[in-house]
Amino acid sequence: MSRTEPPFEERLIAVLPNLFRFALSLCRARDVAEDLVQITVMRALESQGSFDPETRIEPWSFRILRNAWIDMTRRRATRGPEADIDEAAEAVGEDGRRVTEARLMVDATEQALDTLPASQREVLILVCYEEMSYSETSEILGVPLGTVMSRLSRARIALAEALGLE
């Protein structure tokens, strides 16, 4: 290594919050997201030898997470539907018009995100929420750069339309 990089484990630990956010955006269930991150960390540690220490760890680890999500989704499809008892509605504990409007907007945005095709939702989450570059997103998803840009454009338009924004 030409420049001094932190050890692999420290770099992996530093990206855990980002991995969790991405996992949560994919599966929409906290416990499943935690399992997904745990699987990702295990796979990353097992595959540490294939990581190039001269590159950023984020795209590499996000790709592992996405592949784990695909594996998990395939397994889930063969098991059938499951109910999450932790998804019970929470009581509103705060008053105020702004808080209520903000919660409604977040809910509407999450619902609108759920209506997007998975390919568009993934690109939108990686670029807009996780602040990955188009190139990194292309690498994570294994698609050409132009595909990333067109999916992102379509996702932004569809999201704006679903939310009634111009």
UniProtKB/TrEMBL annotation:
<keyword id="KW-0805">Transcription regulation</keyword>
<protein>
    <submittedName>
        <fullName>RNA polymerase sigma70 factor</fullName>
    </submittedName>
</protein>
<dbReference type="Pfam" id="PF08281">
    <property type="entry name" value="Sigma70_r4_2"/>
</dbReference>
<comment type="similarity">
    <text>Belongs to the sigma-70 factor family. ECF subfamily.</text>
</comment>
<dbReference type="InterPro" id="IPR039425">
    <property type="entry name" value="RNA_pol_sigma-70-like"/>
</dbReference>
<dbReference type="InterPro" id="IPR007627">
    <property type="entry name" value="RNA_pol_sigma70_r2"/>
</dbReference>
<dbReference type="GO" id="GO:0006352">
    <property type="term" value="P:DNA-templated transcription initiation"/>
</dbReference>
<dbReference type="Pfam" id="PF04542">
    <property type="entry name" value="Sigma70_r2"/>
</dbReference>
<dbReference type="InterPro" id="IPR013249">
    <property type="entry name" value="RNA_pol_sigma70_r4_t2"/>
</dbReference>
<dbReference type="InterPro" id="IPR013324">
    <property type="entry name" value="RNA_pol_sigma_r3/r4-like"/>
</dbReference>
<feature type="domain" description="RNA polymerase sigma-70 region 2">
    <location>
        <begin position="15"/>
        <end position="77"/>
    </location>
</feature>
<dbReference type="InterPro" id="IPR036388">
    <property type="entry name" value="WH-like_DNA-bd_sf"/>
</dbReference>
<dbReference type="GO" id="GO:0016987">
    <property type="term" value="F:sigma factor activity"/>
</dbReference>
<dbReference type="InterPro" id="IPR013325">
    <property type="entry name" value="RNA_pol_sigma_r2"/>
</dbReference>
<feature type="domain" description="RNA polymerase sigma factor 70 region 4 type 2">
    <location>
        <begin position="110"/>
        <end position="159"/>
    </location>
</feature>
<keyword id="KW-0804">Transcription</keyword>
<dbReference type="InterPro" id="IPR014284">
    <property type="entry name" value="RNA_pol_sigma-70_dom"/>
</dbReference>
<dbReference type="GO" id="GO:0003677">
    <property type="term" value="F:DNA binding"/>
</dbReference>
<keyword id="KW-0731">Sigma factor</keyword>
